[in-house]
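G.,

No rush on this.
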Amino acid sequence: GCCCALYTARADHKTIILDKNPTVGALAITSHIANYPGVDKTMSGQALLDQMRDQAIQYGTEYKKSQVFLVDASQEQKLIYTPEATYKTRALVIATGAMGRPPTFKNEDVYLGKGVSYCATCDGAFYRDSEVAVFGNNMEAIEEAAFLTKFAKTVHWITSQDPKFETDEHAADLLATPNVKHWSQTRMLSVEGDGEGVTGVKIRKKGAEEETLEVEGVFIYVAGSKPITDFLTGGQVTMQDDGGVAVDDEMCTNVPGVFAIGDIRNTPFKQVVVAASDGCIAAMAIDRYLKGRKTVRVDWIHQ
């Protein structure tokens, strides 16, 4: 969202960011950002987010901390309702992310960003030669666990219901990986930790006593991430079957003037750099839309 605001503000469009809380969201709770170009590997997600927001503000973006509870996109002038005011706009960008799933396990929210993660691609490299746990038996869990095997000493794969290994090639391949230990028919009860972060998880295998598994990281894939779209009522904006907002190549929804970027699209590529790219694309499409052009204005053309 901040990237999009930076581009629209620099294009001299009046731009307002409405932000429920600048300290929540996938980026804000990430302890370290190591795969965003040009940033120091010690930078936190919150620091990067603050920097992006400040840069957008420096170029003219207005920032307001306010929760949007309803959007009416039925007319050319879109209405955005907050407790403090109602905003009218010709172009609306939805960038609320996909952190809509409530915590499933005790202390999951306490250690989120401190050992609990929903993205192995983002955080896996921080657990080199460490013991980590992955909970879940869906395809996302299997793929993320496979990614973690490149870094972790042991990947403890915990499943309450086992995949059908005889028909699921990916699950069978994961199970055959030397540094994967499968905890079959096992419930994860809670995440344990101290002031520095995660120290383990409490589990109970079917027919056995409760025990604590010592790990430094826990990657949880219960039902995937849930796009935050509760303020989009009335069926005006088309959703995908997986709950993400449907967009075209220019981040346009089915409603003219309404755009969606980042994890709210429920793309499998949940990376900061991808969301920022979405914002740039949407901003250029917005400029075209507001000025009534049929094509996006480009800075240069390769001859």
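When you get to it, here's the other one too:
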Amino acid sequence: VAAAITAFLQREIDGASNEEDRASLQVAQDCLHQVYRFSSQNVKDSVRLEDVIEANGSEEDKAQLQQEADEWKLKGNGLIREQKYQEAYDAYTEAIRLVESAVYFGNRSAACISMKRFEEAIADGKRAIELDPTYAKAFVRIGQAHLGLNQKTEALAAYKQALAVEPSNQSFQSRVEQLQAEVGDEAGEEEKEESEQQQEQQPNSAPPFDIGGMLGGLLGGNQQGGGIDFQALMSNPAVMGMAQSFMQNPNMQNLFQNMEQPQQGQAEEGEQEHDSTDEGPVVEEA
């Protein structure tokens, strides 16, 4: 088109009656050449701009172009059935060159999927949607291409859009339900793996010691401790500081842990017995 316009401007320059008009037309021609970088041969081989304008204004010519494009599409469909995918791609490209149609882009997207050119398939699917937002098959092509790239979340979104266009399509509904289940399962597995990794990265640490509670437990809950007022003793900051230093000794920690384990074990067994009598279902049944 740019070459055709340049050729048109050259004809105008040649026919200009004064120098000022020729200079203005030359500036326009130079600007086109700087942007598009076509050769003099391109200009020479270009169609006449007047002919293009006239053809676009003719309904008969438009019908002729549409007929030729449909013939290329039918040829591409036949090549798809023969599994000649690159030749089918080329046929659909010829159809698109004549007339841009959502169906042609959708069919070329299918050819790309068959050749595992998934990024191209997505691009063609999106172009088809731009031309016709109600073309459900374009969303399906995008979904299939995302599945080819193992992008299930994106595929699910595409199939949902196809279902929104055709809510009664059982094939789309089944695909959406299948992908929802798969995406949900994968998300659960990822959360489980992430949780396990976090647990592995956390250093093992001993639980904090409750000095007052531990001494009280060892004395059987007797706060007086044979004449010693442990409650008053534990409220003394100096005594608590000494006790904390004392309990930070690893040997003393092990000693107190060994003394407490029998009592804790009995309590845990009792709790487990109680919990086992009140179990609910793991998941709700629909």
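Residues 170-201 form the longest helix (32 residues). The CA atoms of residues 5 and 11 lie 10 Å apart.

Enjoy the weekend,
O.
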